[in-house]
Amino acid sequence: MADITLSSVGKTFAGAPALKDITTRFEDGEFIALLGPSGCGKTTLLRLLAGFEMPDSGQIRIGDRVMADAQAGTMVPPEERNIGFVFQSYALWPHMSVRRNVSYPLEIRRLSRADIATQTDAALAATGLRDYADRMPSDLSGGQRQRVALARCLVSDPGAVLLDEPLANLDVALRASMQAVFTDFHKRTGATMVYVTHDQAEAMAMADRIAVMDRGRIQQFDTPQNLYECPKNRFVAEFVGRGTVVPVQGVERTEAEVHARVLGARIAVQSGQDSPGVSHVCLRPENLTITETGDLRAKVARVTYLGGKYLLETVADCGTRLLAETRARFDVGAQLGLTITTPWAFLED
Amino acid sequence: MGLAMQKGGSRSEDRLLSAILVVAICLTLAPVLRLFVEGVTDQGAPGLSLAAEVLSQPSTLSALRHSLITAGLGTLVSLVLGSAFAFLVALTDLRAKAMLVFCLMIPMMIPPQITALSWTQIMGPSSALLKTIGLAPPLGSPQPLYSAEGIILLLGIQHMSIIFLTLRAGLRAIPQEVVEAARISGAKGLRTWWQVVMPLTLPSLAAGTAITFVTALGNFGIPAMLGIPAGYATLPTLVYQKLAGLGTSVLAEVSVLAMLIGAVAVVGILAQRFFQTRQRVYLVGSTSRPLAIPLGAARLPVEILLWAVVCAILVLPMFGLLATSLVPAYGVPLRLDTVTLELWSEVLFRQPVTTRAFVNSFSLAFGAAVVLMILCLPLAWLMERTPTRLSRLFDSLLDLPYALPGVVLSIAMILLLINLPFTEATLYGTIWIIFFAYLSRFFAVMFRPVQASLKQLDPAMGEAAQSVGASLFQRLRDVILPLSAPTAAAGAILVFLTAFNELTVSALLWSSGTETLGVVIFNLDDSGETAMASALAMTIVLVVMGLMALIQLFSRRFPKGVVPWQT
């Protein structure tokens, strides 16, 4: 069992807090993505899990073992945690062949020569590297190097695999195929995986659940679908997907529906069943339809072709910028009407 | 946080770091501290009366004046020669630059006593070379180099490489775009150089000048070979003469002199540090391609001029040395019927002193290189990985034993080791005192390249091994050592090279049976065996150039900043 539990974990670098009071739990076998802008603390959190850093407060457990406890001042060093770590720079040892890179963890564990050979071959085969076993890392392409890093981490059968922006150095086409490699790897091993990225498309494509982080805190920890459709606060609404957050007035709650005034128009909004109230709505392109008799008037400020459709950046009469999508072409400066349909509303403090 | 770190998972790293750090501090900083304590005490009690007395002696004052004059003007000579070469090599489209740079590095690597010896062989009445071509001055006429001017000239030539290297490094950091921008704005030729290039390189020029001055101030070989016959004493030679003449009874007195040299040197070192930090500001920005301003029609004349200078300051003295080593006795002209390898076989195989010196120098240099490699590799890695306040302090001070004049370190070593604490034993007079002095002096020579290469190493390399379960020892053995091995080897060769040639430290620490090569050359020349000294010096020059060529051969495999003459 390799479920990961963090209780009020905090970390400070030179007086600046990098992580504040993180309490959460990653279930055994889950694929978790840590998503956020640079400097949000996601890599720090990953390095705490690996044991490269010691938390300044709180406790980290993996399975039944307490890995780090700031209060007791104890920490299991990384080499004794049985976790895998895939680095952004791959961190292949340039002086070892592909085979030796992969077999090194087994040598450390003092396996017999025969066992090392079998397990290394299996790991190389699983990552499609059988033909490259005797090459040096410098002779490999970026995607192949990342596969070696993955094989090295797979070979020792770790309880959890931590990945630090593993695709950031690859080109777009290679990223898509490597995403498939990671997903397969996860399915086959059933290992708990924690994946750090700043690319939301990557996180959405692979993760079971995503922890969106900002300024050292987890802002929302949810499935990709919920993050997009039901953001908890302004940061998540604006960071995940396209959208504009605007305040609402005159909220009226009835049995079935909630109505509110958005940018002067009275419309129905959606919100969580248990939410105490709403203060803002997130207007995504899907919530806006272009009609002649729309709720509000807007002027096209910029047109971007997205392939098959256009993204319109419009400025409403009240000055708010709204994003709409359309299959028809509009010119910059054109006047149009917008109708808002059931946007997601949340309470912002 | 400090508490958490100590109890944390990098416990084994912290422990090893502290252990090696203590050894390194004992080696490098303890002697310097010991000297400082000696300087401010008088027979065990705090007091400055002895210091005041020594400092007011006329011999001290004249030696100080001589030191400042020769080091100052010598630096000026270095500055003119070194910067002219640096500007031309770094900024223009000269051909065969690599060869030129290699030749310019040789003066730095050839020990000063050999430089002095070789120059006296192309001047003066007994020069075998001048006699051969019939240009020798009449017998009895004075050797022109036995003078303040001679010392200044040779100090200038010996240390021009330092100016050349620092300035060239600074110039290469200027992106081509900066000069191109000036030209597109209409600046031409010398105007670009004066208004754009010069201001950008001033800090590195100033830093190079400061450290050249410190090196010239501490130079012992040149003023000893040229100044002692002329009765012209500088501070290092004064210390040597007092200690050689009167033994350790004047230890307290020479300590004060050593402190005086050290104090002047520290001013220079601080100036160099100051300018170096200012230079870093300019280094921000891309350094895409180095500059190559076309010289046009002037290229060939400039090339001829530069190579002529190289010939005059490098090749000619070496020929003088070679000529002297090939005649049967000093003063005989070199002709086909007088040429003989008699002296070579004499110094290499027959003389017990020279063969002993070869063994001593070789063992000392080899031992120092190996011990320093074992010490520096894990230390540099751990200091990079888990810096502590102590390790940062050490990092800023570890250059001191190398930067301070060798005389200062020697006196400090004698003070530290003449009475081993808690015992009656002494290391003074044994080979071990020279060995420990070498470890201290050449620590930075080994540590800095290793540190530079480990800084460029991705920290994830070690972390990846850690995450798959490798212990600290396994990480060092399987990952860090193989990756930094080429650099460590280069550092070891440099240590060997410098220690093999060393004179200043061993001149004060040797005793019968523990002579080093530097000491033997100096003593042979001192006792009139100039021809034999030349033959010995020639063999050393060959060893030095061979080792330099070896490093050059592998230089492509070293990370940036490892080979001192490749920046």
Description:
The complex is a heterodimer of chains A (349) and B (567). Chain A is 24% helix and 36% strand. In chain A, α2 packs parallel to α4. With 349 residues, chain A is α+β, with helices and mostly antiparallel strands. Chain A is globular, with a radius of gyration of 24 Å. Chain B is an all-alpha fold. Chain B folds into two domains: 16-45 and 351-518, MetI-like fold (Orthogonal Bundle), CATH 1.10.3720; 57-308, Orthogonal Bundle (MetI-like fold), CATH 1.10.3720.10. Chain B is globular. Residues 1-9 of chain B have low confidence and may be disordered. Classes of the chains: A alpha+beta (349), B mainly alpha (567). The A-B interface holds A 12, 50-52, 54, 56, 68, 70, 73-85, 87-89, 91-95, 104-105, 108-109, 149, 152-153, 156 and B 1, 3-5, 7-12, 458, 460-461, 463-471, 474, 478-479, 482-483.
Question: What is the first-to-last residue Cα distance of chain B?
Answer: 39 Å
Described by strand count, sense and barrel closure, the largest sheet of chain B is: 2 strands, antiparallel
- The radius of gyration over CA of chain A amounts to 24 Å
CATH homologous superfamily designation of the largest domain in chain A: P-loop containing nucleotide triphosphate hydrolases
Architecture (CATH level 2) name of the largest domain in chain B: Orthogonal Bundle
SSE order of chain A: EEEHEEEEHHHEHEHEEHHEEEEEEEEEE
Provide the residue-averaged pLDDT of chain B: 83
What level of helicity do the residues of chain A show? 10-25%
Look at the structure and give the CATH class of the largest domain in chain A. Alpha Beta
Strand content of chain A: 35-45%
Estimate the mean pLDDT confidence of chain A: 88
The unreliable regions of chain A are none
